[in-house]
Amino acid sequence: MQEQNETCTPDPSITYLTCLMHLFVEWLELENLEDYLNYVDYLLWVFTPLIIVFILPVFIVIFLYLSILFLHVYKHKNELKEAYSNSIWDGARKTLATLWDGHATIWHGYELYGLENIPDDGPALIVYYHGALPVDYYYFVAKVILRKGRTCHSVGDHFLFKIPGFKPLLDLFGVIHGPKEECVKALTSGHLLAVSPGGVREALFSDESYTLMWGKRTGFAQVAIDAKVPIIPMFTQNVREGFRSLGGLWLFRWIYERFKIPLVPIYGGFPVKFRTYLGDPIQYDPNITAVELAQKTKCAIHSLIEKHQKVPGNIFRALLERFDRRQKEE
């Protein structure tokens, strides 16, 4: 203790804070701190140009993709003019659909099979597997708008309607949160309606095994029966490889089950191949119960998964499929 005081007191001009800094540097054994700083400065001088060399090409690639996206929009310019001449909201809807369709083409090489199963007019209930982020469903909605001229209404989770600023977008694309009466009303009005029985639970806690997490939900089947409409099963290949969640960790599962708050981290955005498959419609049958119809729909989606998805999913394999030109509709 005496040595420490002597170290700090020989020169009265040295402040107490300076003394502490001096002792701290000695404690870290950085007596040549200036040499270390010079070394760091040298490393920055050497590596900064290398970092710039690697970053600049990324901006060039981004610019090229934005250029392709512009060309995609330009290709649809006449359709957009026509849409805006009918209604400003129709024009806005088609513009957003064009942008999403361009993103789907560029980033995921998106393909849609079975679009002929979607009626040109009249109602149908589309039931789909829910990925960690349902970007495949957004791409599907965009394709239906551009190629069928129809807007597919959707059933969304309640938390979507609590996100600030989302309401105009939800209204534009006909997103509702139920109840069953509203779903039946949308269908009897002649609209297409899409629902994922697994919802947020399936999004967060399913995994690359593509397990359906519907529990005992049969409400969607009862809606189809009440509205007397067909059910069209839908599945997107590699949707779990595009985005994945950390729902396998017990803490996030506990938080969701306890508070119903979807605080599960999601990671990814990998440019894997996406192919959406629409199965054959399950026609309305007045003699079938909601439980039976729900099971029949579940089997139909299981069949699409078994036919078009290698389980467990693999991100690297899904990336390689971007270069596979063979049509995967078997």
Task: Report what the structure shows.
This protein has a seven-stranded mixed β-sheet, with helices on both faces. A two-stranded antiparallel ribbon has the order 7-8. The protein has helices spanning 2-8, 16-27, 33-75, 77-86, 88-108, 135-148, 167-172, 180-188, 199-205, 219-227, 239-242, 250-259, 290-308, 315-320; strands at residues 111-113, 124-128, 152-155, 175-176, 192-195, 231-237, 243-245, 266-268, 275-278. It is of the alpha/beta class and 330 residues long. It has two domains: 2-62, no CATH class; 86-323, Glycerol-3-phosphate (1)-acyltransferase, CATH 3.40.1130. The chain is globular, with a radius of gyration of 28 Å. The protein contains 14 helices and nine strands. Helix 4 (77-86) packs antiparallel against helix 5, helix 5 (88-108) crosses helix 6 and helix 10 packs across helix 13. Strand 3, helix 7 and strand 4 form a beta-alpha-beta unit. 29% of the residues are buried. Keywords: Membrane, Transferase, Transmembrane, Transmembrane helix. One of its GO terms (cellular component) is membrane.
